[in-house]
Fold this protein.
Amino acid sequence: MEVRNKHKVDICFVPSENVRKELSRPYGILFKDVHKLIDYARGFSRVITVGDVVTRSLLEGGVVPFLSVIDGKTRRSVVMNESRYNLKVRNEPGLLRLSSMMVIRDVLQGRSPVSVFVEGEDDMFVIPAILFGHNDDLVVYGQPKAGAVGLENWEGSRWRVQDILSKFLVKLC
């Protein structure tokens, strides 16, 4: 009889160059004024933030995200401390781990607000936020050198994200 160690296998989704170009475009409403973003976000029962600056801006404006995802860095400079976050996931730069996506799915199926600290990079967490979020959730993410994007979740945005994700390369992590 052969005994095997049951290591957990993780799958990584890696965007090709064409997909990276697609991901660099803002989807949703681009906000350059944080006060307008805060006013807009107040109209939603659940707000999901992806990124350190947008999370901090909404919190300072009195909007508490149902889910916040940060990596403690802005343009690769450390800005936030991981100690105030409920969960921690690992996600290397330039890819999206399936295990991290499943954590986001579980949080979004729950009833309590949760904050997630990403060891690595949080940039692609908009994908699971849209895929697993509820209709009418607002997903807010930073758009480098431009502002913040507010994207209302609905079937159309979910379809768009599924289309983008289908173009990723899949490999073992």
